[in-house]
Amino acid sequence: MMNQCPTPRHEDERVLLGHGAGGRLTAELLDTLLLPALGPPPGPLEDAATLPPVGLPVLSTDSFVVSPLFFPGGDIGSLAVHGTVNDLAMRGAAPAALAVSLIIEEGLPLAELRSVVESLGKAAADAEVPVVTGDTKVVGRGAADRLFITTTGIGRRIPALHPSAARARPHDAILLSGPIGLHGTAVLSTREGLGFEADITSDSRPLHRLVAALTRFADDLHTLRDPTRGGLAAALNEIAEASGTGAEVDEAALPVPGPVTAACDLLGLDPLHVANEGCLVAYVPEAQAGDVLDSMRGVPEGESAVRIGRTTAAHPGRVELRTRVGSHRVIDMPLGEQLPRIC
Amino acid sequence: MMNQCPTPRHEDERVLLGHGAGGRLTAELLDTLLLPALGPPPGPLEDAATLPPVGLPVLSTDSFVVSPLFFPGGDIGSLAVHGTVNDLAMRGAAPAALAVSLIIEEGLPLAELRSVVESLGKAAADAEVPVVTGDTKVVGRGAADRLFITTTGIGRRIPALHPSAARARPHDAILLSGPIGLHGTAVLSTREGLGFEADITSDSRPLHRLVAALTRFADDLHTLRDPTRGGLAAALNEIAEASGTGAEVDEAALPVPGPVTAACDLLGLDPLHVANEGCLVAYVPEAQAGDVLDSMRGVPEGESAVRIGRTTAAHPGRVELRTRVGSHRVIDMPLGEQLPRIC
């Protein structure tokens, strides 16, 4: 029952099937690449990590399958941190701990894996959240496309805050913390080689500090949502449906950078459908809108925050765009098939 | 900025790219397939789920990439619950909530997805743990092999228990809750069409009730580990390394079912290296071994629990097998490349 194997070579340049099989190669990958990038383990490696008490816990998980792995403004590693930190933030929670699980295609260059994991570790450190546990699986060539990352976060809810899509109310102001369309067009342009990569950088970044800066608005922070997959159109429609309120968005107020407009024109995309990874919409009572905007603009992530519209009792569940020429049209929930693997 | 699309057909038989893009198709997949299988959502769908306070939280994550998706005794859905529930249990925790993230290959039959997700939902219900949040991504044909599932669990640690690989001590008895080798050989036999499928059924099952049944042993429950990837050999070596104790295992005491021995002979595998998904090893003081075995045998998951060996101060960090003929040989950490995609 003995297995005499040669010592794995440290200079192996690509991920092997055995790196995911729970034996010595897995241990080596952990010791030489994953743990140095993600921070030293607090103790012996176990099947699960014990945490200090979390108060009001919030849980969120996301798988990241973005292609390519690297794009202007980020990579799958930083995105995997920001996406989950932001999902927690949208429920008014600060990130307390992350769990990270990798699915790697056999043959992925170890240098690429190291680059991604180092970026993930840096993004977690920047967001001040520890990676406390993880898993690594390797599948054969052709059974996955390079690398997928699933990040799960536990957050600690800020007690004063309880934003929810269901809490949007008629006569709320709809605020947007930054320009739209950057992440999706940055990824698509890189993937398709469209040449916009020099002009468009993903907005991928953590938003929990922006949310924390709004703590004093407490109950008035009705709804927060980051318009990722499906873009602003999906976020506004989900909120309209969950809350039973209508929404009106002013086309003239929408911050769409010029290169995003150009890329969307070329690709036949609506900027409202394009994923973002570093902005949020906030629904607050009209009377508080100015103060909330001021607070948003006081932190770097919200410095270009604007008001883009309002809710209404007039057409429950429906989102309308007030165009530059004064007409109204419906902003539909996107079907979604145009933009695979954007996050 | 409007997108007029045809209403997606409910009778679509395969997963489409758009099912993972965050738009109407994603919402439809959630409403018609995922949420009915996993239980009704407690409220509107949000980016993250709020949880009741968890006391002493434990966090664990695992990606499941088993191939094939269905095997005797389970499927990727039930396995994804049991694997994570068991990782929590090995730290003395009862499962409190699960987060489930799917990565689906475009073209997967919806019937297969439904079958897996229903099995996952049933396994979670059987383990009495709610699935509180999730994510779904779809990648193009050839970019993943059918379906991968990442399950993350939050557990509530039983206050009396704090088992850890580092807490094994010389003169502990090593107990094993059930036969070894069933899961790995069941999956391999199915994948390779070896014909053992009629005789071998995976041991995949939740172990948190077995652990709860040992609560009264408190501090004496030094170490728990479920020997999954890398099998019993990896588990014993990890514990030996983390605790600095040696271990001796009696070959004659190892419960290896006949069909497992036959399958391993055919495949050139060591049963000690084959993954299990429904048994655990427990390290307890010699004086407690009989009582702990009695308690294990009192629950169905532990009814065939046996004592397989002991720890020793004689060879710190090394695991030895005492063979039937009385000789000793080292049980090495498996290298691991023989058994990809077993869980």
Give the strand order of the largest sheet of chain A, numbering strands 1, 2, ... along the chain.
9-11-8-12-10-13-14
Estimate what percentage of residues of chain A fall within beta strands: 15-25%
**What is the percent of helical residues of chain A?**
25-40%
Largest sheet of chain A: 7 strands, mixed
Gyration radius of chain A, rounded: 21 Å
Biggest protein-protein interface? A-B, 105 and 105 residues
Quickly count the domains of chain A.
2
The arrangement of helices and strands of chain A along the chain is HEEEEHEHEEEHHEHEHEHEEE
Overview of the molecule:
2 copies of one chain form a homodimer. Chain A is α+β, with helices and mostly antiparallel strands and 343 residues long. The first copy, chain A, has helices at residues 24-38, 76-89, 110-126, 182-192, 208-212, 231-243, 258-267, 289-297; strands spanning 49-50, 57-64, 70-71, 74-75, 93-105, 131-139, 147-157, 172-176, 223-225, 246-250, 281-285, 306-312, 319-322, 328-330. In chain A, the strands form 3 sheets. Chain A has a 7-stranded mixed sheet with strand order 9-11-8-12-10-13-14. The longest helix of chain A has 17 residues, at 110-126. The radius of gyration of chain A is 21 Å and the shape is globular. In chain A, 61% of the residues are buried. At the A-B interface, helix 1, strand 1, strand 2, helix 2 and strand 5 of A face helix 1, strand 1, strand 2, helix 2 and strand 5 of B. Strand 1 (49-50) of chain A pairs antiparallel with strand 2 of chain B. Chains A, B: It comes from Streptomyces paromomycinus. Chains A, B: Residues 47-156 form the PurM-like N-terminal domain.
